[in-house]
Design goal:
2 domains, Rossmann fold, homodimer, alpha/beta
């Protein structure tokens, strides 16, 4: 390797509330050498996702929390620089959880598993961390497998202008549903009902939520794709149809909480309306990801699905950029460009 | 009719908090005469159920609230005194929602539907308002159809010594599960692990809930049958296994609330553990009730299922008796004896 230095963010302390500078430490360490069975990957793009904040905490969660002093966990796309694994060759493009760093060992006995990009798709590389990656798979399986919408159903999604939410609404439209998005600015709402083709959008910061739901969902709500929690969930629960489904995909309003947050005050509506509410983590569907990625790629090719990416240059900017997911300023799939595309 | 007087409870005002005497008014009205297609039923037994308190309120619920000045809704067992409907004969025993009164018209164009008791079962009449009625069907379909337990699963039920909970745990045992009951007194816990055959019982009033759950559920919780809500639900949510199921059948801790109650503080665990939580109302399964009733009757005949009834004499005592469902003093299926068995 010509570049012998690997720069990385390690978790120095667990954030209380919003991530602060001191919670992550930026380190320079030698680029590791692959052992038998391993590959050395240069990270090109790092995906920033709300779940990163969960991993930094020690709450009871769906994966082990990132350990203190360990490299921060993150989903990445990279290029194989050196391979001692017969399944990978130098130059292969791969995705995997290689973390907030410039280089990482993968595969072998201790490295994270990586997957080669599909060969038959010609999309810009960042798309493979967005609609053609975990983000798209989250929207696809969460909506279709857990939400189980039928044609004509009303599908409501929160954080609708976000990376997952925007795809959820578009899939709902493709499946013949009424798509209603909840977002936090007039600009985002215009994006939803404009380019993204949602039937209606609600600005939760300025609209009267219940009145807006009544107007946007004249036939009630059949599927709610939940990314947020808190008062939005409470409002939506009062408008659910009998036997409606709630896909509990995220609770972004709670990830920076410094004290316990109550569940929905209208929890009893789950009983009264016989709602089916299910927690959903896309990793459970990993063997079926190709199905989602091919479907979404097809819709993009046909012009039926649109997406945006928000690329921030430089690994050193990752901590500050992560805040955009929680303060409402993020637009499109948030990705850090760590190094140049090959 | 020799008795020309029908005594009945009507809803005078909606209770705030616990039911008070002034909320129900006891009236004497003439016994009605059946029109063509109707039958006149003399009520023998009236079932008292936690859901009665919901019906008295004007919260958003699964049936319309009882209207003010109307006869209080209730599930009853009675005998046909006079029939102008070819499907029913004088002397037939029937069940249906005939309300808190001594006589009621049923069938026809305006009367409540009633169902004849199964002819092939020889059980004491109160059993048809308990394990062989709505109570048993609630336990059966809630546990088996929504909870979907597999052999070896750990099933936890709250209000476990109650009419529904005690059957839930016994069905869990019959299906090869570990049954753990949560109840509110040492005496109830002894009943659970004694006569009813639960593997373990937790006294939520005196035990440390989390420690007790750890001891009672060494392999975690696969199915939680929820009748209570509040702090019990919060504790259980921290001990759920991956892809566990929560049958949301009741939230008795909230029915007398005078201010909004928060949902579970550990709501996020539904996401992290990918829990399937579903609201359940047994009326949705009414066409399948015979399946449950025959299964439960078989288990009772085989000595594999036990139940208790708590019979209070006299319709005039119904309001006071209802309080037993909420103050922890009820033991067994609570039934008002309104008139003599035929």
């Amino acid at each position: 390797m010509t570049n012998l230095i690997n720069r990385q963010f390690c978790l120095a302390s667990r954030p209380v509330g919003y991530l602060k500078e001191e919670n992550l430490v930026f380190r320079e360490v030698p680029v590791p050498q692959p052992s038998e069975g391993e590959v050395l990957v240069r990270v090109v793009y790092l995906s920033l996702d709300p779940t990163n904040r969960i991993w930094m905490s020690n709450m009871d969660q769906y994966m082990p929390p990132v350990e203190l002093d360990a490299v921060m966990r993150g989903i990445t796309l990279g290029v194989v620089e050196e391979s001692r694994n017969p399944k990978f060759a130098k130059g292969d493009l791969v995705t995997g959880m290689l973390g907030w760093q410039e280089y990482a060992l993968a595969e072998g006995t201790t490295g994270s598993a990586v997957r080669k990009l599909p060969r038959d798709m010609n999309a810009p590389l960042p798309a493979f961390l967005g609609p053609l990656g975990l983000t798209g798979c989250t929207a696809y399986f969460g909506l279709l497998d857990v939400g189980k919408p039928s044609e004509g159903d009303t599908v409501v999604v929160s954080a609708a202008a976000g990376a997952v939410g925007s795809i959820v609404g578009q899939i709902a439209k493709i499946k013949g549903c009424r798509a209603v998005g909840i977002a936090g600015s007039a600009e985002k709402c215009r994006l939803l009902t404009g380019e993204l083709g949602f039937d209606a959008a609600i600005n939760y910061k300025t609209d009267d939520l219940l009145a807006a739901l009544d107007e946007a969902c004249p036939d009630g709500i059949d599927v709610y794709f939940e990314n947020v929690g808190g008062k939005i969930l409470d409002a939506v629960l009062t408008r659910m149809n009998l036997h409606a489904r709630v896909v509990l995909c995220g609770l972004i309003s709670q990830y920076n909480a410094t004290r316990p947050k109550p569940g929905p005050f209208n929890f009893s509506q789950i009983l009264m309306k016989r709602v089916h509410l299910e927690g959903f983590i896309v990793l459970d569907y990993i063997t079926r990801w190709p199905e989602a990625i091919h479907a979404i790629a097809g819709w993009i090719d046909e012009g039926r699905m649109h997406y945006a990416v928000d690329i921030v240059e430089g690994l050193e900017n990752a901590p500050a950029a992560l805040g955009k997911l929680f303060d409402g300023t993020n637009k499109g799939k948030l990705i850090i460009k760590v190094s140049e595309e090959p």
